[in-house]
Amino acid sequence: MKQPIYAKSRSALLLALFFTFLFPIGGVLLGVGLGFGLPAVWAPGIACLAVAFYGCPISWTHYGSTRSLVRLVTAIEEEHLYTIPELTAQLGLPEKDVRAKIDTLFKKRYLVGYIRRENGVALNENTALADRETTQMCPSCGARVTFRGTRGECPYCGTIIQRQ
């Protein structure tokens, strides 16, 4: 499952790149505007430089913090590291920082399909089962019933069937 943190990281990178490109654009506009005496050109140049001056470091800092969350999600999803000691060893971060990042992932809903445990995270079996389709035999009438989630209903006799 593609986690929402990946899209957030991509948009943070694009925003940081936008502010970074405003620096040279603002410099060129300012230089050309002052060189030719065109206030309609140098005024936007000053505005671009001012926005880039404040926005660039803030956006790159935000992107860096988002990338550290992406690295944690990757360790959980792809490397299947679920406990705090495993994550601290893999990421090279103190336990306190890993716990804080996991809390951030759950608060911002960046880690979907997992539940918070005392010593890390675990796969939320209810979410994983809800996505899969199952076919079972109805215990009452013997019909084949296909359903999603943890339970279904036989369309022939109405019996509720629990996933085994």
If you had to describe this structure to a student in words, what would you say it looks like?
Helix 2 (39-77) crosses helix 4 (95-107). The protein is elongated and about 90 Å long. It has a two-stranded antiparallel sheet with strand order 1-2. The protein has helices at residues 4-36, 39-77, 84-91, 95-107, 125-131, and strands spanning 114-117, 120-123, 133-137, 144-148, 151-153, 160-162. It is α+β, with helices and mostly antiparallel strands and 164 residues long. It has 2 domains: 4-124, no CATH class; 132-162, no CATH class. The longest helix is centred in the middle third of the chain and has 39 residues, at 39-77.
Shape: elongated
Biggest sheet overview: 2 strands, antiparallel
Q: How many β-strands, per DSSP?
A: 6
Q: What's the alpha carbon Rg, rounded to whole Å?
A: 26 Å
Annotation field: number of helices: 5
Through-space gap between termini: 23 Å
| Tally of domains | 2
Mean pLDDT: 91
Structural class: alpha+beta
Beta-strand portion reads 5-15%
The side-by-side strand order for the widest beta sheet comes to 1-2
The oligomeric state is: single chain
Unreliable spans are none
User: What's the helix-strand series?
Assistant: HHHHEEHEEEE
Residues in helix, %: 55-70%
